[in-house]
Amino acid sequence: MNPGPDERPAATDRGSVPSPRSAHQDESGPRHASERRSGARHTHGQRLPALVALVLIGVLCAAGLGYLALRFTGLVRVFFTEAALAVFLGLVTLALGFWVLRRIRPVRDPDLGASLAAVAWGLTAATAGGVITNAGLGSAWARGLGMPFSEVWGAALTAPLNEEVLKLAGIVLVAVAFPAAVRGPVDGFAIGSLVGLGFEVTENFVYSMNAIVQAGGTGGLTPVVQTTVARLVLTGLGSHWAMSAVAGTAVGLLAAVAWRPGTRRAVAAALLVVLAMALHWLLDSPLFAGIGGAVFKVAVVFVTTMAVYFTVRHVYRRRVRGALASEGGALGMRRSAAVALANRHGRVRELHHVADPERPAVERRQEQMLAIAEDRAVRRAP
């Protein structure tokens, strides 16, 4: 039975169906004309930089893929079965990591296009650049500091400088290419973690191929399995995804203010980048040797990364919930029903209280409310 013209649908109390007037307002975009005009100018000003960044991502990823193919095609031909296993394990790691790391963004998953671009950069451009610069810096340390010292400390001196910078460059390019997808620290954290995931997957392949050669080509599949297990099980929680997520948070801080930060925000972003490099240095350093030491270092990296994550997550969720409560109140919704939309399970739970024919409209309404709430949460960024 349909409600009368002066009656509010019962489902609206649960954040389900808006009144015709409120639905029309939300579908038209921002509520105020000034917001629409500023948003239009902002979008227009971002088009050219976004296009340039997207082209750079495509070109550099293609160049990186080509370099890696030339570098490892010979080994793959000789050790095809071992290489096939390494690729398979990498794809499994990539699929699982992609799902998990996209889910860590609170409220909603990050933009799919930005996520794929981030992974592609880590898989190809950043890793290829790392392979090239690792050799150059390794030679520099050997000449300048001596072979004994560089053999012990070379990795700790090299990786934080070149690998973190290469991954950071990709995060910045993705943020510029997809400005609507990276608008704050939580977005930067998620995109950064995906760049690191791609880097880790290709690096696992490179290490596996190196292990095959070091075993004299007689170890069969064992070097591949041992390398993958060690890098995923022993150091996986504190690997590239974590360090890049910290650096990505810095990018999100700058993107939140249209790349025009004040002194305080610029210093905070710089400190986060330095922190990512320091974590990488610790992980690759010869300090705390042995399995126990490796576990300790991984724990330090993981705990530090989670401290950054939960800090930005708490702030973001609080702002989104406040915006949802305000938006829901304007529509006559109960506060608990409106705030529940900030959680994936909460949205599903609210849908269960709605009749099947109404669910498509309810889902659209939820998306509208979330878009408004997340926009307000970003605009409130200090």
Which helices and strands appear, and what pairs or packs with what?
Layout: H1 20-27, H2 33-78, H3 80-103, H4 112-145, H5 147-177, H6 185-214, H7 222-234, H8 240-255, H9 263-284, H10 290-330, H11 335-339, H12 344-351, H13 359-379
Describe the structure.
There is one protein chain. The protein is an all-alpha fold and 382 residues long. It has a domain at 47-300. Helix content is 78%, strand content 0%. The chain has 13 helices and no strands. The longest helix has 46 residues, at 33-78. It starts with 19 loop residues before the first helix and ends with a helix. The model is unreliable at 1-42 (pLDDT under 50).
Number of helices: 13
User: Poorly predicted ranges (pLDDT <50, ≥5 residues)?
Assistant: 1-42
Overall outline: globular
N-to-C terminal Cα separation, in Å?
Answer: 48 Å
- Gyration radius, to the nearest Å? 24 Å
Q: What would you call the structural class? A: mainly alpha
What would the average pLDDT be, to the nearest integer? 87
Task: Give the helices and strands as they follow along the chain.
Answer: HHHHHHHHHHHHH
What fraction, in percent, of the residue positions are helical?
A: over 70%
Number of E-state strands: 0
Major sheet summary line:
none
Q: Strand fraction band? A: under 5%
